[in-house]
Amino acid sequence: MCISTGEAAFSGTIAYCGRLRHHVHGLVHVLGYQNTAVNLSDGPNAMLLHLPTKQLTPQHFLSARRADDVLRRMVAAVERDAFEDDGIAWMGAESRPVQVFDHDVYTVLLADDPTAVPAALWQVPPHRRPRLDPDLLRFYADRFPDHTIAVCCFDNADARRAKPLLLWYPPLDPDRLTVPALDSHTGGAPDLDAAVPVDHWVLFSSDDAPSDWGVPVEYPRDMRHRLREFLPAAVVGRHFGDGRTLPNGDFTISHRDLLSGGADRIERLRPARL
After folding, report:
1. SS3 for 73?
2. Is residue 199 classed exposed, middle or buried when 0-12, 13-18 and 19+ CB atoms within 10 A define those classes?
3. Distance between CA 69 and CA 86 in Å, rounded?
4. Distance between CA 33 and CA 259 in Å, rounded?
């Protein structure tokens, strides 16, 4: 359900992307990502996410704190209306220093150039420092040259305690909402020709939607304003799973299709071939 630097099993993935006009930051996308991780390697591991932005810093990460069920609340809101689907549509497909910081149970490395990550690994605590396959980093550098790569390092003890990753960013394309879902748990580059098992809730939102669009989401009354201002009033979504497989790729939808067709217009996006 994602890319890891060592052998791991991920299940129950919830992936969310929302589009909103923030009163300070302007038009941004908000990403939410959560799953259950079982680290099967004999040492530290890491989850890699490719994010469609060139402007990402530690300040873009949002702390869930006590609101660690925020993505599950979105799922609960749409679950009664969601259904399985294997007829998904398909789409063709100045470097800065690596930023290293702690967020929840992760030590995160952010890089425009994934091949620069190994030189910054010394900043990761030894109990979270993964082994990185150069072929995996080259895959990201070649296939996602305009993206920021987040390497979220964790150890065996922390694997099951992670809160949802929540972050906002100025997107490369404001009118295309995408959540990373490429799959490989061996530590190597993903096989783009493989059919992979899926166990995903995929959720989207837009603050341009009319008041009767989507399914309203209820949040705790004591949620911090800093978090709430980035969250949607309503979402649409669908569950992809039930033992099925899909060709390897991400999930995406255009903003126009999101407003007009909702979850019925979700597509599978594969990296362009080199």
Report:
1. helix
2. middle
3. 28
4. 22
pLDDT tens track for 150-200: 999 988 666 566 788 999 999 999 999 999 999 988 888 999 999 988 888
**For residue 117, pLDDT beyond 80:** yes
Q: Is residue 93 over pLDDT 50?
A: no
N- to C-terminal Cα distance for the chain? Answer: 23
Give one DSSP letter per residue of 16-71, joined into a string.
EEEEEEETTTEEEEEEEEEEEEEE-SSS-EEEEEEES-S---GGGEEP-TT-TTHH
Alpha carbon distance 212, 233 (integer Å): 11
Tokens coding 5: 């630097």
Q: Can you give the pTM of this predicted structure?
A: 0.91
* Helix boundaries (H) for the chain: 70-78, 134-143, 225-228, 255-261
Measure the CA–CA gap between 177 and 255, rounded to whole angstroms: 7
Helix (H) / strand (E) containing 151? strand 148-154
